[in-house]
Q: What sequence folds into this?
């Protein structure tokens, strides 16, 4: 079997399907995709709302609840305790398959009939305002996270404690404004660093203690801007930085940003991951075009955010513990042979399912638990199911769904984005592939305009105390205007409040109050991440120095005075200003 070039049905650009891809599709019994990998991921993400929360009524009790479905959505929504109870039967909403209209039309009809779970927030203790999360205690506004305690304003936090404003962090405590860090303690404003303690403004450092404004260090202590200091001089200098002052902190951020430009960057954060491409990959094998994936993942492609013993799977977001998964969201914990699944746990042989659990042999089902051999929430015998399902798949191919832009969806295509229960800007698609309202609607996505907010602003950001030592307890009663004031594309909430646990953290860590709302702070962190895209590039090590001569190598490399010939796939676009080194040259400079 050879490679094949196809034209994406969505963006009209060419993409390639490799022999190993065809082998995977054959295992899954699905045709090759008609959308390119990037468009597939965007379409997938448009079905996952993580952070857009609303107050609405529980349709079973009339009580106010927090939900990912806004009140104007045409769905029945139950508070998750009620949804998980035995007081209602998802099978009672079952439908006979109608061969007179496309499958996806029928699925959307079922979606509007079956009660939906208000939040995907499992085993949460005093953590009501969280979504796509598990095993939380005293957490607030964290998303896509698990096994955390006393964590606020985070995404992708795993096994963290007493921390704020994290974007993908693992096994860390007392950390703040970190991105992609693991096993850190009292580490602030740092990126892609591990096993570090009592440090701030680190970039790609490991095993460092009491370091400040440093890049590419290994197992160092008492360094400031990559220069060693005695213990006494280090703490004397640190007392001069005044991190508790907002204005002083902004100057330090700018200084660190300029300083880091002088050093080489690793082409990708691919650690202990042979034959793998992407970024933020830890302990993976044979994984391609994947991002934010960790812990024993093998033979996968086009995965984002997850991992944890995933095998032989393609195109997924937020997945873990499973095999043979394709085009899935928040799916795993013991699954196999699952296609087009959104929130599916512990089951096998399921396609086109939404929030189903501990079930097998499902097709086009919503909200089922502990069921087998069901189609559109109707129960069949094993023999009836196996007789009807091939007819439905044949019907999906002969009567495909066509969306408003004329794109067609046969059996083996993921759900059409226009049928998603969410608007584009309510979903993670807006985070990774941001669009304006006009761009989104032109591409066939829905858009939700910001709801009018009747906040009575009591404190402008410019009027906040500069230093945390001057903040009084009255700040907890203030409604603070976000510095963006909705003049951005970051889902700004216009105003925000400081909560008690948050204030205690700022005081404990001597950090100033933020000037942006939690949503805007999240998007500011996202902007520091590279895109979910790879470019083929050459190493920028020119022999004795970098190509731009901004960095002088500290040691002789294997290629000597000649230019390094190594090439690689990287998420740093060619026009980016960073100095990008291959693994060998980078490691030489970080010994």
A:
């Amino acid at each position: 079997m050879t490679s094949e070039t196809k034209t994406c049905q969505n963006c009209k650009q060419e993409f390639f399907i490799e022999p190993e891809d065809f082998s995977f599709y054959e295992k899954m019994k699905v045709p090759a995709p008609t959308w390119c990998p990037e468009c597939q991921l965007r379409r997938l993400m448009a079905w996952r709302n993580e952070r857009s929360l609303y107050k609405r009524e529980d349709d079973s009790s009339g009580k106010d609840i927090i939900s990912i479905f806004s009140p104007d959505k045409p769905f029945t929504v139950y508070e998750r305790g009620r949804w998980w109870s035995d007081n209602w039967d998802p099978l009672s909403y079952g439908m006979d398959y109608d061969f007179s209209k496309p499958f996806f039309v029928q699925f959307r009809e079922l979606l509007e009939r079956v009660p939906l779970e208000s939040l995907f927030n499992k085993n949460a203790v005093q953590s009501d305002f969280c979504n796509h999360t598990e095993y939380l205690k005293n957490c607030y506004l964290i998303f896509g996270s698990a096994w955390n305690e006393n964590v606020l304003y985070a995404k992708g936090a795993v096994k963290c404690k007493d921390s704020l404003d994290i974007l993908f962090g693992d096994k860390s405590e007392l950390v703040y404004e970190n991105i992609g860090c693991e096993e850190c303690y009292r580490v602030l404003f740092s990126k892609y660093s591990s096993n570090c303690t009592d440090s701030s403004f680190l970039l790609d450092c490991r095993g460092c203690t009491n370091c400040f404004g440093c890049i590419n260090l290994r197992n160092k202590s008492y360094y400031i801007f990559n220069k060693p200091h005695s213990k006494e001089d280090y703490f004397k200098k640190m007392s001069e930085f005044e991190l508790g002052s907002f204005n002083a902190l902004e100057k330090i951020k700018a200084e660190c940003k300029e300083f880091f430009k002088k050093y080489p960057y690793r082409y990708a954060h691919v650690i202990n991951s042979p034959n793998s491409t992407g970024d933020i990959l830890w302990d993976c094998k044979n994984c391609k075009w994947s991002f934010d994936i960790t812990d024993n993942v093998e033979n996968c492609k086009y995965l984002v955010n997850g991992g944890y013993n995933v095998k032989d799977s393609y195109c997924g977001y937020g997945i873990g513990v499973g095999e043979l998964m394709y085009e899935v969201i928040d799916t795993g914990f013991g699954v196999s042979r699952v296609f087009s699944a959104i929130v599916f746990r512990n089951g096998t042989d399921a396609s086109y399912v939404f929030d189903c659990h501990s079930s097998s042999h499902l097709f086009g089902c919503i909200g089922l638990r502990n069921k087998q051999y069901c189609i559109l929430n109707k129960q069949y015998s094993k023999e009836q199911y196996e007789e009807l399902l091939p007819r439905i798949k044949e019907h999906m191919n002969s009567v495909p769904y066509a969306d408003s832009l004329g794109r067609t969806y046969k059996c083996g295509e993921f759900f059409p984005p226009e049928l998603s229960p969410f608007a584009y800007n309510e979903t993670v698609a807006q985070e990774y592939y941001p669009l304006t309202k006009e761009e989104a609607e032109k591409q066939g996505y829905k858009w939700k305009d910001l709801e009018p907010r009747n906040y009575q602003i009591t404190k402008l950001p410019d009027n906040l105390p500069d230093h945390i030592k001057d903040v009084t307890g009255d700040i907890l009663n203030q409604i603070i205007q976000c510095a963006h004031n909705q003049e951005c594309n970051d889902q700004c909430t216009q105003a925000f409040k400081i909560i008690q646990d948050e204030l205690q953290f700022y005081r404990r860590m001597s950090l100033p109050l933020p000037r942006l709302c939690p949503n805007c702070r999240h998007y500011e962190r996202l902007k520091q991440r590279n895109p979910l895209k790879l470019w083929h590039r050459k190493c920028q090590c020119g022999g004795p120095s970098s190509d731009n001569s901004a960095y002088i190598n500290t040691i002789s490399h294997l290629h000597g005075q000649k230019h390094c010939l190594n090439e690689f796939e990287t998420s740093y676009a060619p026009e980016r200003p960073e100095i990008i080194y291959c693994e060998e040259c980078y490691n030489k400079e970080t010994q």
